[in-house]
Input
Amino acid sequence: MDIDTGISVDTYFEIDAASETPVEYWGGEAVVLPGETFPHLKLKKRVVRLLDDALPLCETYPSGLRVEAPDLGRANYAYPDVVTLCEESQFDESTRPHTLLNPSLLGEVLSSSTSAYDLDQKLTAYLQIPSLMAYVIVDPQTPRVRIYHRTGDGVRMEEVQGLDAVASVPSLNLALSLRALYEDILPAS
Output
């Protein structure tokens, strides 16, 4: 990941609008996201399809939506691999491109270049989004999904693994079969 440090939010918006690839912004740093591999894209597409099927009253999108993820009063802007919206969309229309303010579920498919980032900075910031019900992290190497989801008592983390496992988010009435998610995607063992 290429990182440009110490820039203003306005400068970030200019960089992102002019860039052909997504650029994220984390506390003064512009982060150019690396290109995606075919297996990563295939798994991301599968996540989007399964969420679309499982959540018929919601809409699920791959990558292209920028999301605001404030953390400790700092501005952060990200392009999650997967964005699910279960309410009427709310955008900050003063930004170009527009920034989604109310995602219901965010998902990331891990990669070697971004996994630490997805499991640390993004996790902390995403969980500060008031509308977010769940953050889903998908391991591309083995059938394993980690879900951080809101409960009446705060946020709970659950990790499920194995093709017979089911990842669930009770607040969204979501049950995601790992067999359906990983079928024909993992390399033969």
